[in-house]
Prior knowledge:
Elements lengths: L8 H5 L13 H21 L6 H8 L3 H7 L3 H27 L4 H18 L23 H17 L7 H22 L5 H17 L5
Helix pairs in contact: 2-3, 2-5, 3-4, 5-6, 6-8, 6-9, 7-8, 8-9
Amino acid sequence: MGGLSYSDLVSAALTTTGQVRNEPVQARSSERIGALLDAASAVVAEVGIERLTTAMVAERAGASIGTVYRYFPDRIAVLGAMSLRGFERFLRLSAEKLEATAPTGIEAAFGCLIDATVELHRTEPGFTSIRLSDQIALPEVDGGTAAAARVSGPLAAIFVDELGVTDDGSLADTLDVALTIADALIVRAFIADPKGDAAAIAACRQVVSGYLAGASVSA
């Protein structure tokens, strides 16, 4: 193949990590930022995005409000960093599942992305509130391009190299729509049931599979 591989998905889709005011240069700073984002995620899981405040983050993390402001100028910056972290974890887990599964077709490959999304909704506090297609993800990059669109281009190139998929120039758009559909339906499944409504998740797989087949994506 000689081109992009599944392991390239993370670097190809992430364009910046500029959500943190002071980029951590020491392990201690990195750990502190992680603890603040863990706290923010827990608060969002309990009260939602709209009610999150920097004071809540500080209280949950057991830190001073000054510590929060050292890294995040306001609540939007906290949510942006939380979203970016969730997006990066989605990319890494997707790449791991793709490499481990070695799918032979695009529907099976896309199933790995759905599997990764479902797993993160189950294991990452706040992940259901910070959605992959939300504009809050990396808001200062590419005019606020949604995360689904940010990953579809690299994913299309990887599928061409890894699966031998034919691309007439529309594959990235097809994958963008599929990612957006999957995101919306999986979020709905986890709003209906915190553990993920099994019937809704199955319906998501069926709808996406039908869409990809109808889009005439072939290897």
